[in-house]
Amino acid sequence: MLGTLSAFDFFYLVLEWPGSYCDAATSCCYPQSGKPASDFSIHGLWPNNLDGSYPENCDPSRPFNASQIGGLRGDMDALWSSLSCPSSNSEKFWAHEWEKHGTCSEKILRSQRDYFAAALRLRKSVDLLGALEQAGISPDGKSYALSLIKNALQDGGYAPGITCNADDDDSGSSQLYQIYLCVSKENLEITPCPVLPRSSCHSRVEFPLF
Ligand SMILES: *[C@@H]1O[C@H](CO)[C@@H](O)[C@H](O)[C@H]1NC(C)=O
């Protein structure tokens, strides 16, 4: 395996709704940098293949090194922080994303800095919340038809994969959790998805407060 650069077809930019992360069975803790904005945050930038498979953990010889992303810290804290407990500085989360997915991106994004910077730039280039709010869909704890959410995102120019998680209140209601946008490995811009993850959403989904 030494020196093998992993091949892949495109990236998923996976964004998540923090309110749904927190309103689930595993509770959340705000990061040491403080409560994140009420907006979609980054889960990761994941190399993926057209057949749905993906490479992972491609280069154990290149561990995460926080000092290589020094200048990105403010944006990382604002847009890519960890909500897992106990409260942390998010570095374990970033190390996991880098080691599992980033090391498989090396053909396209050669350094840790390039990898994290690309995800931040892409996140800043989209406005999912704005597209939803245009259609009267906001994080108010109410339920919306999944078709309405899809149409609103489509009108905003996005046709993403959508996954849901379960509310922890025993109602079994499904919540808008992760949005999978696709990114071309040729030009590193958002592109229509060649393949979508299986949706776990019911026909109506809750959009929790955060
Ligand atoms: C992390 O990166 C810095 C700056 O490039 C470097 O000086 C240091 O040796 C690296 N640390 C490790 C553990 O590789």
UniProtKB/TrEMBL annotation:
It comes from the Eukaryota. The active site is at residues 43, 97, 101. The keyword Hydrolase applies. Keywords: Disulfide bond, Endonuclease, Hydrolase, Lyase, Nuclease, Signal. Residues 1-24 form the signal peptide. InterPro entries: Ribonuclease_T2_eukaryotic (IPR033697), RNase_T2-like (IPR001568), RNase_T2-like_sf (IPR036430), RNase_T2_His_AS_1 (IPR018188), RNase_T2_His_AS_2 (IPR033130). GO terms for biological process: RNA catabolic process. One of its GO terms (molecular function) is ribonuclease T2 activity. Transmembrane segments: none annotated. It holds the Pfam family Ribonuclease_T2. CDD domains: RNase_T2_euk (cd01061). GO terms for cellular component: extracellular region. Belongs to the RNase T2 family. This is Uncharacterized protein. It comes from Selaginella moellendorffii.
